[in-house]
């Protein structure tokens, strides 16, 4: 199937303004890294998501879901085929003590929506930059809370384009993982079961967590957030700090001086430099402390030729 034909098909499914060709992915990731996407498509309905998945299957076109790019490194060679971004599916609605949020909504905004209607349970998410879809994908968590604590159900598109409604238990949520990648699901929405609370108390917790995040995290530079999972019995940031790695730089990528668990794009880094620095940190920590740091951030795409 030629590229012109793919373009026409995608426009037929969505519309011209929702299909970008050879789009630099560094414009769509928090790290500001990444080569071009062959086709970046932004569907506006669940049916469009299903049709795009079916098109990719039928024509055997490589297919990648981007999320909002907050916990992701795209390599310098970019990504072939169809890349889907769900940021136009961002509706958040409340019914009694439940909030249903579409995949492209930011989990921060869901946390704020809960505060507005005096519901408690999502305070921990007030500083997580990811989308709802990404938060379910990796069972995102912070400050002692995680998605698993509050998720009731999800609507997903299966690998053959069918719509499924799943209970939270069916997603096998564990520390920073779910079965969503293994099963090839695309999250369309999640429903969170919360409890009635007191506005001032909920706000106080969120203000406190926001202060902690802003004082500790290097939000002034592009980054993918926390690079590594917490190794059992340790803290990744402390191990990296104790290995003397803070400030270490490869090209434009630097181990943050503010929080060693973060790698920042300080000066127009390439993905190759960023990934090299991740490997260097892993090798050094392994050598000094015998601990294997596991990546929390996803790396996708192709190297430059």
From TrEMBL:
Cofactor(s) needed by this chain: FAD
Subcellular location: Cytoplasm
Active site: 176, 226, 296
Pathway assignment: Cell wall biogenesis; peptidoglycan biosynthesis
Keyword Cell cycle: yes
Keyword Cell wall biogenesis/degradation listed: yes
Coiled coil: none
GO biological process: cell division; cell wall organization; peptidoglycan biosynthetic process; regulation of cell shape
Xref: InterPro entries: FAD-bd_PCMH, FAD-bd_PCMH-like_sf, FAD-bd_PCMH_sub1, FAD-bd_PCMH_sub2, MurB, MurB_C, MurB_C_sf, Oxid_FAD_bind_N
GO cellular component: cytosol
Record field: catalytic activity: UDP-N-acetyl-alpha-D-muramate + NADP(+) = UDP-N-acetyl-3-O-(1-carboxyvinyl)-alpha-D-glucosamine + NADPH + H(+)
Keywords carried by this UniProt record: Cell cycle, Cell division, Cell shape, Cell wall biogenesis/degradation, Cytoplasm, FAD, Flavoprotein, NADP, Oxidoreductase, Peptidoglycan synthesis
GO molecular function list: FAD binding; UDP-N-acetylmuramate dehydrogenase activity
Top-rank lineage group of the source organism: Bacteria
Matches recorded under Pfam families: FAD_binding_4 (PF01565), MurB_C (PF02873)
The EC number(s) this enzyme carries: 1.3.1.98
FAD-binding PCMH-type domain mapped to chain residues: 33-212
NCBIfam families associated with the record: murB, PRK13905.1
Family: Belongs to the MurB family.
Function: Cell wall formation.
Protein name per its UniProtKB record: UDP-N-acetylenolpyruvoylglucosamine reductase
